[in-house]
Amino acid sequence: MAEPNIIFGVRPVQEAVQSGQTINRIYVAKESRAPACKGIIDAAKQQSIPFDFVPQAKINDLTGTKEHQGIAAKISPIDYLSLKDFLSTVKETSTVLLLDQLHHPKNLGLIIRSAVGAGTSALVLTERKGALVDESVIRASTGTVFRIPLVKAGNLSQAMQQLKDAGFWIYGLDAQGETSVFDMDWPRRTALVLGNETKGLRPNIAKNCDALVSIPLANDLESLNAAMAAGIALFQIAHGRG
């Protein structure tokens, strides 16, 4: 397993450098032949980011794997915004995704990648009983986590109320939702809530939504993977607004 705050692989390190994320040091294997590593080192020089050429065994030890593409970086902890700070600069047309105690880091990483691709404005994570961003999430998102504002909420119900006060309509994604995501007329300010992988939305969270929406499934399929469901819904919201 990688050390805390160690990320690895060309794309995650590249994304971190391009985003302005605080990077303490970059490690490049002396044996590396990856052309992209040179571009990362050139960018590091421009930003005065320290870097070392080290034996590949050193990167194996740092990352806990040999699947690192010859590059790793030690970064500072991920910065989370407060919801108040995010809302102070939010655009009139905006989509926010809230995750209600999502547990699996790989799902979180894949959801982040879809959210970035769909133009989602921010991601709200629960501070307790849910996955937060670590090196495995960064890896699963292929570094796109550095492209989206992250908000950490101590109380998701309170965060939902703050969003409502800011003009957002709140929709819970639920298999029992009466309206299909494909039939919705999405408001300019939309917040989508996605529940836990096995339990779905908590009852109190579902109750606080303005409405529950669903993804219609064929062949008696009961549900989709959380990351797949989030991607479908987020892209549909973006498409529905034209």
Shape designation: elongated
Strand order of the largest sheet: 7-6-5-10-8-11-9
Give me the strand/helix succession.
EHEHEHEHEHEHEHEEEHEH
List segments where confidence is low: pLDDT < 50 over at least 5 consecutive residues. Answer: none
How far do the termini sit from each other?
43 Å
Name the structural class.
Answer: alpha/beta
Amount of beta strand:
15-25%
Specify Rg, calculated over alpha carbons. 19 Å
Overall mean pLDDT: 91
Biggest beta sheet summary: 7 strands, parallel
Strand count:
11
- Tally of alpha and pi helices: 9
Structural commentary:
By secondary structure, the protein is an alpha/beta fold. Helices cover 35% and strands 21% of the residues. The protein is built from 9 helices and 11 strands. The protein has helices at residues 10-19, 35-46, 56-63, 83-87, 105-117, 135-140, 156-165, 203-207, 226-240, and strands at 6-8, 23-29, 51-54, 71-75, 94-99, 122-126, 150-153, 169-173, 179-180, 189-194, 211-214. It has a 7-stranded parallel β-sheet with strand order 7-6-5-10-8-11-9, with helices on both faces. Strands 1-4-2-3 form a 4-stranded mixed β-sheet, with helices on both faces. The protein is elongated and about 60 Å long. The model has no long low-confidence stretch (mean pLDDT 91).
